[in-house]
Write a structure and sequence with these properties.
With 219 residues, this protein is of the alpha/beta class. 31% of the residues lie in helices and 24% in strands. Helix 1 runs parallel beside helix 3. It comes from Mucor ambiguus.
Length: 219
Amino acid sequence: MIPTPDLSHIRKEDYERVYEPAEDTFLLLDALEEDEALIQQLKPSICLEIGSGSGCVTTLLAKIVGNKNAVFFTTDINPFACETTQQTGLHNGITQIEPIRTSLVDAIMPRLKNRIDILCFNPPYVVTTHEEVGSMGIEASWAGGIDGREVIDQLLPLVKVCLCKDILSPQGIFYLLLINENKPDQVVQLMKETYKMNAKIIMERRAGREKQFIVKITH
């Protein structure tokens, strides 16, 4: 069992500026740890986390991969999250994290065409008004708009064009976190029927009134 990354370097007041790891974060960590043998067998050389926040997920993924030559790119629209992500990696002995301040994958294409072996996304999924979507501060970590799907739906249409043909490597794996309000079964069917990808819910957990899911997507 790989220990949860040490976040003691992050001060309490910092969580007013960056998303504090919570039940959704830990569900994604558990899904990655559950697939530890598969990920290690894959021998990923380039990984990407969209919306890295504290950097907890990428740091754990780097520990699972265990390859000092692998590179772990992260993106976040929040500059403080980019800084915190790198500091979390360094605090836990991970030096290969390369944060990029951008929305979704805007700044990394086409540079990483067909290169991403592991892709992780814990999106802003909370149901909010449309006007709350798109902030560059802490709100960007949770405001998901209508059905909590507005940011998610910005990424999913890219799957056929980008994730399948441009971003994911042929053996790449995409781990996507959703909640019940995001209609995860609908997302799975969309990935299968519209984008011709393999998709299934591999883990789910109730956190208070919220039910959370991990969808795993592959070619």
